[in-house]
């Protein structure tokens, strides 16, 4: 059974850093599990953080603009063709981790067959992996326009500011109906320990369901493109037990 984690929030909140931190934690905790990183953010920063410029996307398949690595097999149905193309755009990061980029997605209002065919192909792809981490565009609505799938745990990334807390509250409202009754909560990122009192005041004001707090890692300034942070990984491990995700049995 595939475990699905979605990371949402405003651009610049630290989503990509947190997605990569979860990837490292899953690799450490479950080294034999297969992982798919699913970049649903229009900036496509996740691929860039691995030094990749991924041009082949799900949108490319939908629009007919995808350039295939191999020749197109003959005698395929349209559904088989889309599923084959989906395999073609997967990019391996290591033996157990792949990444795929969606870029633009079609509207659910579109009744053209390609909308359902893409949805079915993505769902089939997700089931091949033990763990899928979605780097989302703002909230869950944009992801839902691409694929109907249940998310086990959705994390809204917010920063310790009035504006960010207010926005997290809105994202929580927008995403609730797409969370399918599963876990939906906020993680406060880039927190200065000296500002903890003001952070707790914000939480009370907006009544946010906070799953955890991540301190600000000054070292990220030294390698902003890779977005790798041991500080972030260690902070996530402190509240990981609260998440609706696989736990290590002791």
Low-pLDDT stretches:
none
- Arrangement of strands in the largest sheet: 3-4-2-5-1-6-7-8
Radius of gyration: 18 Å
The main β sheet shows up as:
8 strands, mixed
- Provide the β-strand percentage band: 15-25%
Q: Report mean pLDDT, rounded to a whole number.
A: 90
Number of helices: 9
Shape assignment: globular
Estimated helix fraction: 25-40%
Describe the structure.
37% of the residues lie in helices and 19% in strands. The protein is α/β, with parallel strands linked by helices and 250 residues long. It has an eight-stranded mixed beta sheet with strand order 3-4-2-5-1-6-7-8, with helices on both faces. Helix 8 (196-206) links the parallel strand 7 and strand 8 (210-215).
Brief overview:
The chain is α/β, with parallel strands linked by helices and 250 residues long. 37% of the residues lie in helices and 19% in strands.
Annotation keywords:
250 residues; 37% helix; 8 strands; globular; alpha/beta; eight-stranded mixed sheet
Question: What is the strand and helix layout of this fold?
Answer:
Elements: E1 3-9, H1 15-29, E2 35-39, H2 45-49, H3 58-63, H4 78-88, E3 91-94, E4 97-101, H5 113-126, E5 131-135, H6 140-146, E6 153-158, H7 162-175, E7 183-191, H8 196-206, E8 210-215, H9 230-239
Parallel strand pairs: 1-5, 1-6, 2-4, 2-5, 6-7, 7-8
Antiparallel strand pairs: 3-4
């Amino acid at each position: 059974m595939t475990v699905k984690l979605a990371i949402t929030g405003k651009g610049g909140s630290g989503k990509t850093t947190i997605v990569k931190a979860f990837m490292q934690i899953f690799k450490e905790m479950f080294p034999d599990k297969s992982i798919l990183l699913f970049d649903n953010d229009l900036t496509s920063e996740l691929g860039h953080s691995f030094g990749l410029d991924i041009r082949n996307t799900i949108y490319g398949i939908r629009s007919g603009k995808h350039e295939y690595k191999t020749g197109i097999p003959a005698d395929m149905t349209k559904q088989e063709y889309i599923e084959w193309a989906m395999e073609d755009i997967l990019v391996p990061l290591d033996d157990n981790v792949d990444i795929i980029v969606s870029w633009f997605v079609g509207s659910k209002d579109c009744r053209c067959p390609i909308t359902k065919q893409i949805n079915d192909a993505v769902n089939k792809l997700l089931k091949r992996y033990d763990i899928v981490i979605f780097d989302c565009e703002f909230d869950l609505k944009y992801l839902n326009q691409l694929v109907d799938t249940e998310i086990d745990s959705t994390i809204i990334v917010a920063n310790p500011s009035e504006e960010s807390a207010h926005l997290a509250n809105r994202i929580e409202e927008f995403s609730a109906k797409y969370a399918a009754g599963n876990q939906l909560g906020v993680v406060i990122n880039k927190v200065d320990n000296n500002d903890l009192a003001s952070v707790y005041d914000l939480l009370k004001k907006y009544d946010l369901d906070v799953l955890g707090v991540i301190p600000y890692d000054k070292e990220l300034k030294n390698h902003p493109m890779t977005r790798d942070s041991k500080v972030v990984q260690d902070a996530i491990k402190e509240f990981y037990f609260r998440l609706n995700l696989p736990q290590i049995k002791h």
